[in-house]
Design a protein that fits this description.
By secondary structure, the chain is of the alpha/beta class. The protein has 4 domains: 156 residues, Alpha-D-Glucose-1,6-Bisphosphate, subunit A, domain 3 (Alpha-D-Glucose-1,6-Bisphosphate, Chain A, domain 3), CATH 3.40.120.10; 114 residues, Alpha-D-Glucose-1,6-Bisphosphate, subunit A, domain 3 (Alpha-D-Glucose-1,6-Bisphosphate, Chain A, domain 3, 3-Layer(aba) Sandwich), CATH 3.40.120; 119 residues, Alpha-D-Glucose-1,6-Bisphosphate, subunit A, domain 3 (Alpha-D-Glucose-1,6-Bisphosphate, Chain A, domain 3), CATH 3.40.120; 79 residues, 2-Layer Sandwich (TATA-Binding Protein), CATH 3.30.310. It is 42% helix and 19% strand. The protein has a 5-stranded mixed β-sheet, with helices on both faces. The structure holds 2-acetamido-2-deoxy-1-O-phosphono-alpha-D-galactopyranose and zinc ion. The site of 2-acetamido-2-deoxy-1-O-phosphono-alpha-D-galactopyranose has 14 residues, from loops. 2-acetamido-2-deoxy-1-O-phosphono-alpha-D-galactopyranose binds next to loops. Its EC number is 5.4.2.3. GO terms for molecular function: magnesium ion binding; phosphoacetylglucosamine mutase activity. One of its GO terms (biological process) is hemopoiesis.
């Protein structure tokens, strides 16, 4: 077939370095950009097959998120904006690792196993972040798509969640919104403005927000969005990419892991600030006290704020919908206690990685999911959205119930339900603080985090560590869990676990305890037990 000849011809322009083996991990492929040209071409091929198979548009995002500028990566997006299925992750790994002369065989193998009709049309949306390597790498994806006769739309520079949104809009025939960047801004900003209009006596302090753009795509997109916000949000944007290096000493991952403010941001005491990561799918908030102490409001605090707000609105609207919060083992113990004991909401714990949280959240009427690092969103079931809409439109309900239902309706619209989205989460948080008339300090005071520490340990082979119970306990190597249990017993309110990273060649260690000294000491001792 001509298509396969074209694949052979073009693949020689995107050769695989012999012997290089890469794995499609939690966030797709991610490594030094120099090793990725063949991967990108092949992911263009695979996305085209996935589109033919699903008879829907598939997304391909070129980004390495919070990794250093020298890295890059690629991730496929399924029709509803979600991650691809495990079987297709395996195909991605097989196709990526086939030596040059075996590529056609590997491709035909997938076509046969999935019984793909090669005459079916294929549509692929492609997006990229601001890394210098992203331009040529996304061109390699486009080359892969065209080889197999797929039609591509290149969105150019977009955030990861924007591309997820476009894919979902396209495959729902516009029911979720317009598959354009402008459509995205209009939907989110209009909902935000409707929400904030509900607040009486909104002060200038409430309108003012300081953003660290991590010198990445999020900064560019915030600038683009500003004109859609009217004067409802006044943004001071730092680390906008004009001077600094992507993710270097800044961004959500740096702030969360280092537990300190990013460089490049002028923070006045008490001021509300937030940081995006390199592809704007994560967000954390923070402020400094008048004594200079740093206060972080991470994904757990965000999940608590959002779920409290939603629970109150559901009560006011007289709607009986089940709300749950989905977390991972990295969630601060205080947040879990507060949610379960004080808020009385269901809390689930899943393995690390957004696809696990997303999946668990789909089981509820309303599922709020956040990783502690600030990646998360809220999912509303179809039935929940319908009930909210009915209540908002019902002529017989009280004004109070109607007002709450209308707020819920606009809240649904401001949220990007396809994936965690720093821009959408930021608008939601800003709206909630405004509606509740809450300062960042009051939000922070809902509960106090247990001091914690995260460390990375380099080992010869991280895969020797196997875990169970949503990664909270190690089942191998033998004796490791017992050693951790013994160390944890030495400290108060302590908890610790280890797991192999899905995105870096390291083992991650997490510890929390009653004081920072104890958390640091426990993390250190556990990391020694990992060797
Ligand atoms: P790994 O490297 O598997 O820990 C990290 C984050 C995840 C997730 C992925 C994808 C932590 C502890 N881990 O995974 O939560 O965001 O990257 O980006 O933050
Ligand atoms: Zn990211």
């Amino acid at each position: 077939m001509a298509q396969f000849q074209e694949v052979s011809r073009q693949s020689s322009l995107h050769p695989k370095p012999a012997g290089l083996i890469l794995q499609y991990g939690t966030a797709g492929f991610r490594t030094n950009a120099k090793q990725l040209d063949h991967i990108m071409f092949r992911m263009g091929l695979l996305a085209t097959l996935r589109s033919k198979k699903t008879k829907a548009t598939i997304g391909v995002m070129v980004t390495a998120s919070h990794n250093p500028e020298e890295d890059n990566g690629v991730k496929l997006i399924d029709p509803m904006g979600e991650m691809v299925t495990p079987a297709w992750e395996d195909y991605a790994t097989q196709l990526a690792n086939a030596e040059q002369e075996d590529l056609l065989t590997a491709l035909k193998d997938i076509i046969q196993k999935e019984a793909i009709n090669m005459s079916q049309e294929a549509h692929v949306f492609v997006g990229k972040d601001t890394r210098s390597s992203s331009a040529s790498l996304s061109q390699a994806v486009l080359d892969g798509v065209s080889c197999l006769g797929g039609l591509s739309k290149d969105y150019g520079l977009v955030t990861t969640p924007q591309l997820h949104y476009m894919v979902c809009c396209q495959n729902t025939q516009g029911k979720y919104g317009d598959a354009t960047v402008e459509g995205y801004y209009k939907k989110l900003c209009q909902a935000f403005i409707r929400l904030t209009k509900n607040a009486s006596n909104r002060t200038d302090d409430q309108k003012y927000l300081c953003i660290d753009g991590a010198n990445g795509i999020g900064a560019l997109k915030v600038r683009e969005m500003e004109s859609y916000l009217g004067n409802e949000l006044q943004i001071s944007l730092f680390n906008d990419g004009n001077k600094g290096k992507l993710n270097h000493q800044c961004g959500a991952d740096f702030v969360k892991v280092q537990q300190k403010p990013p460089t490049g941001v002028e923070i006045n005491p008490g001021e509300r600030c937030c940081s995006f990561d390199g592809d704007a799918d994560r967000i954390v908030y923070y402020y400094t006290g008048s004594d200079g102490t740093f206060h972080l409001l991470d994904g757990d605090k965000i999940a608590t704020l959002i779920s409290t707000y939603l629970k109150e609105l559901l009560m006011q609207a007289g709607l009986d919908l089940k709300i749950a919060v989905v977390q991972t083992a990295y969630a601060n113990g205080s947040s879990t206690c507060y949610l379960e004991d004080t808020m009385k909401v269901t809390v689930c714990c899943t393995k690390t990685g957004v696809k696990h949280l997303h999946h668990a959240a789909q089981e509820f009427d309303i599922g709020v999911y956040f990783e502690a690092n600030g990646h998360g969103t809220v999912l509303f079931s179809k039935a929940a959205e319908e009930k909210i809409q009915q209540q908002a439109e019902d002529g017989n309900v009280s004004d109070e119930k109607k007002r709450a239902a209308l707020l819920l309706q606009n809240t649904v619209s401001v949220i990007n339900q396809t994936v965690g989205d720093a821009i959408s989460d930021m608008l939601l948080i800003e709206a909630i603080l405004t509606i509740k008339g809450m300062t960042v300090q009051q939000w922070d005071a809902i509960y106090s985090d247990l001091p914690n520490r995260q460390l990375k340990v380099k080992v010869a082979d991280r895969r020797v560590i196997d875990t169970t119970d949503a990664e909270r306990r190690a089942v191998s190597p033998a004796g490791l869990q017992e050693a951790i249990d013994g160390l944890v017993k030495k400290y108060r309110q302590a908890r610790s676990f280890v797991r192999p990273s899905g995105t870096e060649d390291v083992v991650r260690v997490y510890a929390e305890a009653d004081t920072q000294e104890s958390a640091d000491a426990l993390a250190h001792e556990v990391s020694l037990a990992v060797y």
